[in-house]
Design goal:
By secondary structure, the protein is α+β, with helices and mostly antiparallel strands. Helix content is 43%, strand content 16%. Helix 2 crosses helix 4 and helix 4 packs across helix 5. It is elongated, with a radius of gyration of 16 Å. The mean pLDDT is 86.
Length: 171
């Protein structure tokens, strides 16, 4: 269940929206949870930016709470792997997030990130959703091992599928 964050406001998103005058969305995915914040620039000079934010601990990278979450990760996986091994690899990702960064490990990390972002956007759309942002900021340790072009594809895939209402990424 997503929890709306009222205090303190996500200061970085608000400041960035004020400075650049753009709609800013922050997607933070880490090992302990995920956060989505959206800031709208002020309508008049001197006014504060409007901010909405929500966190979702269950969208942590590699966290598999139940079979539905495992199904979502498995649906994004592009490597042939059985469910038991996938669950083990996701647990390994939780224990050693900076290990196995190339080859199959990178593809599994991308699948886990897509699933996390998709769950985050689905769960927070009512509280944080709105028009498409002008600028998306990716934060959190989960993104540090992902090349920028791959991160863009991960976000585009997950957000597009989530907003289209497609619960199964294979559609």
């Amino acid at each position: 269940q997503a929890r709306r964050i009222d205090e303190p406001d996500p200061v970085a998103a608000a400041t960035l929206a004020e400075v650049v005058g753009l709609r800013v969305e922050v997607l933070e995915v880490g090992m302990a949870g995920a956060l989505r914040a959206r800031a709208m620039p002020p309508e008049r000079a001197g006014a504060p930016a409007s901010v909405a934010a929500a966190e979702l601990p269950s969208a942590a990278l590699g966290l598999v709470e139940d079979d539905a979450v495992l199904d979502r990760v498995e649906a994004w996986t592009t490597v042939p792997i059985d469910r038991a091994r996938l669950r083990d690899r996701l647990a390994e990702l939780q224990l050693a997030p900076w290990a196995d960064l190339d080859g199959e490990g990178a593809l599994l990390r991308a699948a886990a990130l897509r699933s996390s972002v998709e769950r985050l956007v689905d769960a927070t759309e009512a509280d944080v959703g709105g028009p498409a942002p002008d600028l998306v900021v990716l934060a959190g340790g989960a993104w540090s091992a992902v090349p920028a072009p791959a991160a863009l594809l991960i976000v585009a895939d997950a957000v597009r599928r989530s907003r289209a209402g497609l619960s199964d990424p294979r559609r």
